[in-house]
Amino acid sequence: MASGCTGPHGHLSRLFLSLLLGVLRPAVHYVEGRTLLLHRTVSSLCSNADHQQADWVGVHERICQMLVSIRSMKDIYDPAVRKRNQLRKTHLIKICKLVAQSKLSEGKHEEALHAAHCCLQTSIDLYGPNTIQLVPAYILLAEANMGLGNLAVVAELLSQAEWAVLKNPELGASVQQQLHRSLGHYHTSVGNLEIALHHFSNDIYFACEEYGLDSSATTKGYFLIADVFARQGRTAIVHSLYSEVAERWHNHLNSLLETHQQHADSSVSFYEKAQRVEMEEMLRVILEFEQKQSRRDAALIALIAHNLAMLWFINGDLHKAQDFGSTALQASLQIPKHKLTEPIQELLQQVESLQTEPQPGSD
Amino acid sequence: FRNTPKQYMCVEMLQDGYHRSFSELFTLLSFDLEQRANAPPRSPRLQEPSLGEQREKLETIRLHLCRAEKAERDGSWTIVCEERLHLGRYFTHPMDIWLSFHFYHSCADRVFGGRSKSATEARFHLAELYRQQGDLVEARDHAERALKQAEDGGWLDSEGQPLRLWGCRELGEIYSLLGEAYLAAQEYDTATMLLQLGSKMAIEGGGDKSVEAESFFREGMGLQSSGDHQAAMKLFNTCVELFGYLQDVKGLVKSYKAIAKSLESEGNIEECIKMLEKAADLCHSSDLQERLADISLTLGCIYSDVNRPLKSCEYFLQSYKAACTAREVVLQHKAQVKLGHTSAHSLIKSYNSEMETPSLTSVKRLVDWKETRGHQDFC
């Protein structure tokens, strides 16, 4: 039973369990079984991750304790205990959500699945079935399944979520935005492009309402909807959208570059890193698209390549920074007196000077 | 999903690929909400529904912004400007002026196409709006720039007239108003120069005699204030001609009054009185009671100055009656005070000597008079 649980409360829970065993004999096996199953789930959550952060172990501990204490105190009528239970469940939901989201952003859909399942289960436990609080959990699970290609499951989950939202139109912009984005993804995968457009449009609208017109959520929304237009072959619109995306990130990256130069190598948050990975992927897609066009827009190519150069420079990969930098320079020189030529040249100079510097601790 | 008009319109725009139009509309809507949040309670702004709830306006914005975006992608700058000009003209409600400003500026300030005909027209509209809002400095700047563009472009307006004439008229109005402002600040030189420019522009703008007449009148007032009565009267006489031609009685009356004032300043009281009486007759025949009250008051004062109390009181009484008819309380009170003052003075006059000599007989006489006087109706 609770064998993996070490830590200060471990023996207490075991004690309690033994008490319960005495009282609720028939329920014992059920409780045991459930505890074991959930325990295994928790273990699998942590087993394949790259544990750079030491507190994953701590998280494991906490989840353990929580799960055991939740399951074992299930039938207590003391309101104070019940309240504590609820708080623990809410906390558990949050943790599972975070884990699932981080797995998704790393593309580890299988692992995200477990966390998302746990999240949904606990949510149903806490709030009851078919309530609006389940919507974020539904969306998370749908996203995980989408990555694994289980489209039928996705359809089912999303329609549950849609139904919940329909019944509660007062739901905040943030959840509506997430739902529409998932629906957009789904419909794109199954080829319902017009419906996908509708959902991504709503996604962008709610992202603006919630996070503002200039937010990264909105910019990502533009990128996603551009993909649908691309599948429809509406190149002019795609080009226009990509221009806007590139412009927005140019501003963002410029300020990032400035702060980077002022405080070299301040630690980057996990979230920021994930964002940058996303940004890099999106920029690559855009660059590829633009370079394939029969009538190349040199200004836009310069912009995108410059963005990528800045991004790799901030990430510390000087080789790639130089690569993209020269692409950018080539493109910008095609336009007389282009405003980007100077900044690009400056960046390239910086890259060069850093490359010729002896690296600390290298040959 | 039951959508608000705002959501519906935004989603429509995005679905069709018009993301820049969406950005612009969204920004406008956010600004509108901000304004409403900052408005004091019960302000007129809050009496109207928010922009996001007005379907027709949103639809119009959507239509023209999307057309503009499409034209932008195709590189047709003139169409972009046309669409934006149209939007500027569409918003006429006083609460929507900020939208007109936004669209006119977005048209006129463009780098590509900012010197096109539509952009020039937008700039004229801006000059007009700024003038109406009282920002004469901005108005002047925009009008002058637009005039230059119109002259360079040589375009015609919808009635086949050169576009630059609109500029002349607009600038004329602006210069005159600026001139009046300087006049009020007693900077006579600048005022005179601006008022002259105003008249010149009004004539060049052509056609509208009433605009010309008004400009000349203002110019005349400026000259009068700075003391050049001869030049002022010359202009006022021209005004009389123009207003006569236009059969503008109010214009005539104010011109006569202005001439009279100049004549008075030059000491020509007889002519002055003649002018004012002419004006008074005109007021009588056209039933301009308020003007009549005003003119009569002036006449009364002048007669009082030249020591003709009877005539003076006659006109004060006339003024009082006219003011009552016109329900002009201020004039009414003025006339009453003047009337009382003058009558009292003329009454006392015959007893002046009594008041000055401190003797028993004088006092007795005065007391007698007081007791027997009653409410004499002096004539």
From TrEMBL, chain A:
It comes from the Eukaryota. Keywords: Signal. Residues 1-33 form the signal peptide. InterPro entries: TPR-like_helical_dom_sf (IPR011990), Zinc_finger_MYND_domain (IPR053248). This is Zinc finger, MYND-type containing 12. It comes from Poecilia formosa.
UniProtKB/TrEMBL annotation, chain B:
Keywords: Cytoplasm, Repeat, TPR repeat. TPR repeats lie at residues 120-153. GO terms for biological process: cilium movement. It is found in: Cytoplasm. One of its GO terms (cellular component) is cytoplasm. InterPro entries: Bac_ResReg_Asp_Phosphatase, TPR-like_helical_dom_sf, TPR_rpt. The keyword Transcription does not apply. Axonemal protein which is implicated in axonemal and/or peri-axonemal structure assembly and regulates flagellum assembly and beating and therefore sperm motility. This is Tetratricopeptide repeat protein 29.
